[in-house]
Amino acid sequence: MGDLMLSEAVAKFPGTTKFSAYLKLNTSLRASLDKAGKYAIFIPDDAAFAKLTPEQLATLDSDATLRDSMLTYMITAVPVDPASLKDAQQVPTVNGTSSPLTLTKSDTGLRLNAAATVVCGAITTARATIYLTDTVLFPPA
After folding, report:
1. What pTM does this model have?
2. Which of 13, 45, 53, 95 could be a cystine partner for 72, CB 3.0 to 4.6 Å?
3. For residue 2, what pLDDT is reported?
4. Where is the FAS1 domain (predicted)?
């Protein structure tokens, strides 16, 4: 996947159907991610979306603002290397909010905001490193 653009890699990555479909709806975000920068993207796997209630999923499906907020909150504005992370390191996201992701290393792996766990990670693409998570995160209100 190293030579693929981010949106291509996400679309081909197994278990990321829902996130990939949402990313496909945001053409400007896809274009930005594919042409410049180096990112880390924390993709909630399909099991993470299955944890949401039917009402939450329906809202994500119909509310582009909420959906785009979730997408951009899961993408960091800088690369992430777990080996060099400091404990409880805050990493800015492309969401633009003043609420960065807090990354914590534990015995069970890498955690985000003490709520999501990386279940698979460090898959490199041309523009990003992909990590799969077990929970969908939204920026704080």
Report:
1. 0.89
2. 95
3. 59
4. 3-137
